[in-house]
Amino acid sequence: MDERVLLRRAAAGDREAFAEFYRQTAPWLAVRLRKRCADEQLVAEVVQDTYVAVWRAAGSFADGAAVDSVLGWLWRVAARRLVDAFRREGRHRDVVEAAAETAATAPAAEDAVLEWTLSGDVGSALGALAPELRQVLQAMVLDGLTVRETSDLLGIPEGTVKTRARRARLTIREAMS
């Protein structure tokens, strides 16, 4: 069943629809969170917090919120919960470093799909970006995070986020011309 339908039914209090929504989306969400955080316990906590928040806010999505997709909305909720968890734990630098080590050993599935989807000049430009620029672009553009949230997620100052975002845009613009 479609996630949007399940979420609408969950908003009406249908626990079985919410359970099915969880079964369909939790594995996807956990994989995305693991890409950002190497701490399995923290990922599990964030997944749990996310679905509690989704249960409580399902009505806001079902009411026709200006959200393109259920998964995009779900990811935005989860990404903000992850940032909050990093703040609470005060250990975002260690977690980000561990995630960076994991990412360095294997290509990220999202990067491969993005480069495959955006073929030609755009795909080449994205592939040519330095990893630190691509991380900022992914957090801000694809994940929809703010400068502050990106700063917390990556463990870098807000000014550095802005600088890297600008450098990434300029690099892509230059490659496209």
From TrEMBL:
CDD domains: Sigma70_r4. The keyword RNA-binding does not apply. GO terms for molecular function: DNA binding; sigma factor activity. Pfam families: Sigma70_r2, Sigma70_r4_2. Keywords: Sigma factor, Transcription, Transcription regulation. GO terms for biological process: DNA-templated transcription initiation. Residues 21-91 form the RNA polymerase sigma-70 region domain. Residues 122-170 form the RNA polymerase sigma factor 70 region 4 type domain. InterPro entries: RNA_pol_sigma-70-like, RNA_pol_sigma-70_dom, RNA_pol_sigma70_r2, RNA_pol_sigma70_r4_t2, RNA_pol_sigma_r2, RNA_pol_sigma_r3/r4-like, WH-like_DNA-bd_sf. Belongs to the sigma-70 factor family. ECF subfamily. This is RNA polymerase sigma-70 factor (ECF subfamily).
